[in-house]
Amino acid sequence: MAAGSRPTSAPRGGGAARPRRSVAKRIALVLGGLVVVGGALGVAGFAYGYASTDVPEPTELGQKATTTVFYSDGTTQLGQFADVNRTPVETAAIPEVMRQAVIAAEDRSFYENRGVSPSSIARAFVSNLRGNATQGGSTITQQYVKNYYTGDDTQSLERKVREAFIALKVDQQLDKEQILTDYLNTIYFGRGAYGVQEAAQAYFGVDVEQLDASQAALLAGVVPAPSAYDPAVDPAAAERRWDYVVGGMVETGALTQAERDALAFPETVQQEADEVYAGPDGYLLQAVRDELTTRGAFTADELDGGGLTITTTFDVAMQEDAVAAMEDEDAFPVEDRPEGVLGSLVSIDPADGAVKALYGGADYLQRQVNGATQDKMQAGSTFKPFALVAGLEEGISLRTRYNGNDSATFENGYGPGNFGGESYGRQNLVEATVTSTNTVYVGLNEDVGPEATADAAVRAGLPETTAGLFPAYPSNVLGTASPTVLDMAHAYSTFAAQGVRTTPHVVAEVRQADQVVYPGGPPASERVFDEDVMADTTYALEQVVEDGSVRRTIDLDRPTAGKTGTSNEAKSAWFVGYVPQLATAVAIYSTDNEGMDRWDSGNRGRAVTGSSYPAAIWQEYMEAATDGMEVLDFPERADVGSTNGRSSSDDDDEDDDEPQEERTVLPPAPEPTASTPAPTPSETEEPTPPPSEPPATTEAPAPSPSATPEDDPEPTEPAEPAEPARPTEPGDRGDGRGEGPGGGDPGDPGDEEPDAAPAPAAAREPDGAPIG
Known about the structure:
Helix content: 25-40%
Number of domains: 2
Number of strands: 18
Organism: Pseudokineococcus lusitanus
CATH superfamily of the largest domain: DD-peptidase/beta-lactamase superfamily
Keywords: Carboxypeptidase, Cell shape, Cell wall biogenesis/degradation, Glycosyltransferase, Hydrolase, Membrane, Multifunctional enzyme, Peptidoglycan synthesis, Protease, Transferase, Transmembrane, Transmembrane helix
CATH class of the largest domain: Alpha Beta
InterPro entries: Beta-lactam/transpept-like, Glyco_trans_51, Glycosyltr_51/Transpeptidase, Lysozyme-like_dom_sf, PBP_transglycosylase, PCN-bd_Tpept
CATH architecture of the largest domain: 3-Layer(aba) Sandwich
Distance between the termini: 149 Å
Domain Glycosyl transferase family: 78-249
Strand content: 5-15%
CATH topology of the largest domain: Beta-lactamase
Domain Penicillin-binding protein transpeptidase: 343-592
Strand order of the largest sheet: 2-1-5-11-12
Number of helices: 22
Structural class: alpha+beta
């Protein structure tokens, strides 16, 4: 051993000596062990996180979709309901260039990745450690998860990790094409458009199937920041973004360089305000919403976001005919028309109650009251057929004659008078219907009882809550009740269906995802009148069209029945009529409680009556609506009932005298009592004036030879009831003497039968109970 050297000690156990480890190596070993342990813990943590994260139910916003409303043909769009403007489309509807454009813009590894981007999660982790907001860079699948499943906009690592776990599961559950389709149906593109279909419409005015590569690239480019990349907001930024996307499409192989070079930056359409409710169509959409929500079929939220397909009963051609008739300058001129004068129309198929056309006003955005379904106005003489029905049901024949003289008075001295003071002598019910003779119909109403007349109106289709319908008074036959245009169309459609009442409806069917979820149609149909009664009622109303005041206006070259009506001061004027396959009601009315007779002097010399503008509108609409429709006959007259005890002459001779018209000056509807809740007044309802004193009478004229009516049940005492009295106005000047506007040629009948007059307070029996 060399001097000064130290022997190395042998290792224990006699083995060779072991060199010492450096500090650096020891640190490296420790870190390596930590990495192994951390990796094991990371795998375990990942496994736990994956297993414990469920795919949640879709968010409400993610599922919301636009509801589309169609006409009865199922293809012509009427409008839409939407909270979220989204119309999902199938995979086959999305062009390949659109799919490739969004991949190039948002996730070029879409078909290779498993739904997540590890690099983006890592960036989010680092950013979170630095205290910054999380970064973008999510995959298409992760964006889809955020939009459809979580709806979470929180900028946090926890959100990113949770969405990553959900994205992994979604990527396993759905194929890539379905994920891409769902993503394109849910993403927001700006301009109020959710989903690629509405985006195509909002930016280019086309359906998604029609998008070209240039347009697809623009849409894909706006996704990250629609407000920044919309060409309408920043054209330069939009074009830079578009250039990035089409460059990416070349990179991914979706386009060749030559194809890319041939592309030009697309032109977009100007964004328009949402006017889905504009014009007359707005009233149709409102009627659809009302029907579906009132019947409990859908909530408003379900209609706005359920992605439903609603097929209505509205016939597109008939609806166009209705709008054309209501807006025709000859039928309903605007010239000098007072601002508050409006018109409405409803047309119903009697066979099934389907509303084929509805005109509720010129523009829903200007007036959110549907004139066809919400405005109420006195019915005038269009109410008289309900008394005729009640009489026929009581066995009173069409041949029964009543006193048609102007001077005829009834119980307690009540005398309604006739238009123009005309006296017709003794008239049977057909003649009195043609001339709309007030005194005959009040006599008939006295025989059957006003309650029976009101009941017939309800069975035909008027709601029991119709203003002025109850309590029932003898004057109700003159049209004191105030129904809607829809109500009167419904009632006369029951006549057209020969006594079968079917509830009107505007929805034919509702589908969701190609499944019928609401069958639509009427709740039920019910026979409410005997067929023979209907045959005789229709016969009488046919004579109105053939020989009455509308004979020069109504001419459809097919069997037609109908009735005019005009209220006091022409605050409302009607024509309601039908052919076997279609019943239509037309009304014009004043919404400011001013009479339309103030319009007479300026409206081309025509008086405002049921046989003027309403009949002209009705004729123009029905002539177009029935064009090509099979010509059918009404049933033959049945001649039900007898004349015994009600007529001094049973012979069947019917006068051939030309009909005269009468203005029925209508009393306002009595104010309902506490036991009869008052319906919500419409703009057209008239206030009840204080009752006047009964006029002093001289020698009473001979009463009508009607049968002595049974005592009416004692009604609940109304607040200041009013009854009609003798007319105090000369009528509509269409008195057949050729005098004044609206007068016919000398010797011809007038143009209308406007209806009866405000009368004295009801007479009272000794105990104070009102009579009539």
